[in-house]
Amino acid sequence: xxxxxxxxxxxxxxxxxxxxxxxxxxxxxxxxxxxxxxxxxxxxxxxxxxxxxxxxxxxxxxxxxxxxxxxxxxxxxxxxxxxxxxxxxxxxxxxxxxxxxxxxxxxxxxxxxxxxxxxxxxxxxxxxxxxxxxxxxxxx
Amino acid sequence: xxxxxxxxxxxxxxxxxxxxxxxxxxxxxxxxxxxxxxxxxxxxxxxxxxxxxxxxxxxxxxxxxxxxxxxxxxxxxxxxxxxxxxxxxxxxxxxxxxxxxxxxxxxxxxxxxxxxxxxxxxxxxxxxxxxxxxxxxxxxxxxxxxxxxxxxxxxxxxxxxxxxxxxxxxxxxxxxxxxxxxxxxxxxxxxxxxxxxxx
Lengths: 140, 199
Prior knowledge:
Chain B: It holds the Pfam family ATP_bind_1. By secondary structure, chain A is mainly α. In chain A, 33% of the residues lie in helices and 7% in strands. In chain A, strands 2-1-3 form a 3-stranded antiparallel beta sheet. The relative contact order of chain A is 0.16. Chain B has a single domain (17-197), classed as P-loop containing nucleotide triphosphate hydrolases (Rossmann fold, 3-Layer(aba) Sandwich), CATH 3.40.50. In chain B, strand 3 and strand 4 (85-91) form a beta hairpin.
């Protein structure tokens, strides 16, 4: 998606004014049709876990939905049977976190993925979970 | 993408795990990503957040009025503690002016590591201040760079005016064992807090 540096290759006549530093040529939010917020207004945490709905339980119409982009389908594909955090999806798809949030929001709306939100800060994990964390870290 | 696919293949269905996060803060070049990489089961992943909101008071764009978006980079790692329990480590953006991004990162975090370099101790003031104000438990980890002078923990504590309850640990961000100790000390603070609350 990005072009080479100006002067790439011999006899490269057309001078390009952009290079890798200019970032992707498709503006990231073009994939979200300009939306920077997801429909239900709730922010998706970086560690909210996304998992694809079981294929049997998916609305048949949803996958045929022509408004879904390849990136939407990539997310469904990546989370099939393997839960992924929003941060991991962003890194894996090389998309900004904000874009992934919007795309995941669409997929939730379409019934194609489920999102498990992390433990809310007001109710941090209980002692037994923290004990597992401490023991688990020591055992690494 | 390849990386995400690489660890596929486990049998499904996988229940969504409980996800927890710890933050790793500190000045630019202090070794945050190195520390994350020392304990992460995956090579630290890189992600970017595009900031589009206008009028953020801390984002001083005077002189670049045409600029509407800023990219902030974060590196993070993952430790699977149990099938249903995953810990994420997020390196916070080094630039002070992206503090507002920390708010989102910090929400729900178990705690934080503030990584310091004694040659540039002032670089971690902002992070110490941030976590103190929000009562987020943190451990001050001094990354012992080769060739840097070693200072006793008490000197570091005094220089940063840390509360007596804040652990100060000399560490090597490249060494797994060393980093494990730092992370355990962060979670133990949260544990003690809960135990105290429960009476």
